[in-house]
Design brief:
- It is a single chain.
- Helices cover 32% and strands 32% of the residues.
- With 176 residues, the chain is an alpha+beta fold.
- Strands 1-2-3-4-5-7-6 form a 7-stranded mixed sheet, sandwiched between helices.
- Strand 4, helix 3 and strand 5 (127-132) form a beta-alpha-beta unit.
- The radius of gyration is 15 Å and the shape is globular.
């Protein structure tokens, strides 16, 4: 990982974090990431999403991790959703793994995924699942030891409205 990049879990998400997380989300959607949002990607949509996620984190329903550069700017994020049905207390969902385009291919994504896995394990989760429509993300997940489980064609839309296939992965976590 590049010097100066720090990974931390956000226990409380303040205005500075909402702004930085919104900038990362907007950059990723404008760059073509299929992460639940359509163009145009507005600041209002991004802020509404992060404010809702922040409240969920405060309730203990999810973990939010960020990667910050040497100046403290948020350049990436990932979440682990913990609030799942009662018959899945051992499982977590990895969500919104986002890295700003200026910080890609520097190890930020791998560091965020490692933090997410460690956080999930500390919360008692032993199975993680995620989905992606990105070839770059898929390569990252495979390098991190995630297992491919299948593809669903036309599962979601790209930000421009085109249909895209979604690839599903899982990882079994082992306590140390």
């Amino acid at each position: 990982m590049p010097d100066g990049i720090q990974i931390r879990r956000l226990q409380v998400v303040g205005e500075r974090e909402i702004q930085g997380l919104s900038e990362v989300l907007i950059d990723c959607v404008e760059g073509g990431a299929s992460v639940s949002f359509m163009l145009p990607m507005t600041v209002e949509k991004a802020r509404a999403f992060w404010e809702k996620a922040a409240q969920s984190a405060l309730r203990g329903e999810r973990m939010i991790f960020v990667a910050e550069d040497g100046s403290g700017a948020i350049v990436g994020t990932v979440q682990v959703v913990l609030d799942l049905p009662e018959n899945q207390p051992h499982r977590g969902d990895v969500s919104k793994m986002l890295v700003h385009r200026k910080a890609r291919r520097l190890g930020v994504g791998a560091a965020l995924m490692t933090a997410a896995e460690q956080g999930a394990l500390s919360a008692g989760k032993t199975v993680l699942v995620l989905d992606t429509a990105s070839d770059d993300a898929e390569r990252l997940y495979r390098r991190q030891g995630w297992q491919f489980s299948g593809t669903i064609p036309d599962y979601a839309l790209m930000p421009d409205g085109a249909y895209c296939a979604t690839h599903f992965f899982y990882k079994m976590l082992k306590p140390s």
